[in-house]
Amino acid sequence: MKSLGIAGFIVSFGIILFLVHTVGFSELLGIYHDINFFYWTLAVLTYVLVIFLSAIRWNEFIIDMGMKARFASVFAISWIGCAINSVTPVAISGGEPAKAYFLSKVSSTKKSRTFATVIATDFLEYGSFVLLDVIAVMIIHFRLDLPVIILYPLLLAIGVGILILGSLIYTSLNRKASLTVTLFFTSILKKFRIFKNHILRFESNLEHNIHVFNTALREISFMTIISTMSISVFSRVLDVLRLYLVILALGGGIDPLFIVIAIAFATVASIVPLLPGAIGAVEPAMIAGFVLGGVSLPLATAVVIVDRIIVLGLNTSLGFGCMYFLGYKNQQGKW
Q1: Entry pTM
Q2: 219-239 tens-digit pLDDT
Q3: Where are the alpha helices (DSSP H) in 65-192?
Q4: Containing domain of residue 250, as a range?
Q5: Does residue 51 form part of some domain?
Q6: How confident is the model at residue 180 (pLDDT cuts 50, 70, 90)?
Q7: Residues 174-198: what's their mean pLDDT?
Q8: 197 lies in a domain?
Q9: Closest CA to 11 of 294, 284, 307, 328
Q10: How many helices (H) and strands (E) does the chain have?
C-alpha cells in the first residue's frame, strides 16, 4: 500500500512538471508577476465559503438524525475530511470515514449512524456534479457543435454516472444490498494483512451496524433533502465564481459557461486511482476546458496551478490544523 502511495505521488508531480515544462517556467512567472491580489483574496474566501456551506449542509443531516454536535466542530471536521481527501487516492477514499469517526467522537454517537450523515451529504455532492456534467455536455454540444461520434460517448458517461448514483442510493437504503456490497469489499480488503484484523472485528457486528446505518438514512426528512440540495447547487455556482476570480486575478477573461466545462472535466478526472488528491489528473482536464473557452495554454495552466494551490493549500493547512486541535481536545477529555 505504501509503495502505491509513493508511485501515485511520483506520477502526479511528474505530470505537473511536464505541464510546467511544456508551457515554460519563465512564461508562467511573467503571468504571476502581475497577479491582482484583490481578486485572488476573493477567490480564497469563496472557497472557504464553499466548505462553510458544506458544513451547514452536513449539519442539517446531523440535526435531522437527532445527533448533537457543535457547529464549530462540524466545520472543523469538514476541513479534516478535505485534508485527508487531498492526500489519498480517488475523491473520498479517506476523508469520509475520518469525518464519520470524528463526528462519532464529538457527538457520542455510533459510527454507523454518523457515517450515514456523511453518505447522505455525498449523495447530494455527487448528484450536483452529475448535474454539472449534464449542463457541460449541453454547452459543449450547442456552443461547439460537436459531432455525434463525440457527443454520444459523453452522454453515455453521464448515463453511467446517473446509474452509479441511483445504485448507491438503492444499496444504502436496502439492508440486503448493503450487506452484499459490504461483504464483497471486506473480502477484498481482508487479502491485505494490514487491514485483516480490523475487517474481522468489523464483520463480527456487521449486520447490526448495517441495520443502524440503513435506519439512520431513512430518518432524513424531505425538507432536509430539499434545503441541502439547494446548498449543493449553490456550492457549484461558487466553484465557477472562484475560478472566474482566479482568471481575473491573472488578467484573463472567459465565458463562465466554459468554466462549467472545465469543472466537469475535472470531476471525471478526479476518479483516477493512485493519484493523491487527483493531482496530475485534474489539472490537464481543467486546462483542456479553459482552452476550449479560448484561454491561451500558458494562462490556462497558470490559472489551474493557482486554483489548485488555493484548494489543496487550504485543505491541508486548515484540515490537518483542525485535526491537531480536535486530537488535543480529545486528550484533554473535552470532546
Answers
A1: 0.78
A2: 777 788 888 888 888 998 999
A3: 71-87, 95-107, 111-144, 148-173, 175-189
A4: 2-169+210-331
A5: yes
A6: confident
A7: 65
A8: no
A9: 284
A10: 14, 0
Query: Is residue 76 in some structural domain?
Result: yes
- In the block, cell 472562484 appears at 242
**Alpha-carbon span 162 to 56, nearest angstrom:** 25
pLDDT per residue as tens digits for the range 7-37: 555 655 666 677 776 667 777 777 788 889 9
DSSP-derived secondary structure for 261-295: HHHHHHHHHTT-TTSBTTTTTHHHHHHHHHHHTT-
Torsion angles phi and psi, residue 35, rounded to 5: -60, 140
- Grid coordinates standing for 293? 473557452
pLDDT average, residue stretch 284-307:
88
- Which amino acid is present at 18? F
Higher pLDDT, 10 or 82: 82
Q: 3-state DSSP call for residue 89?
A: strand
Q: How many domains does the chain have?
A: 1
* 13 within a domain of the structure (yes/no): yes
Contacts of residue 75, defined as CB under 8 A and 6 or more positions apart, other chains included, come to: 51, 52, 55
Amino acid letter, 235: S
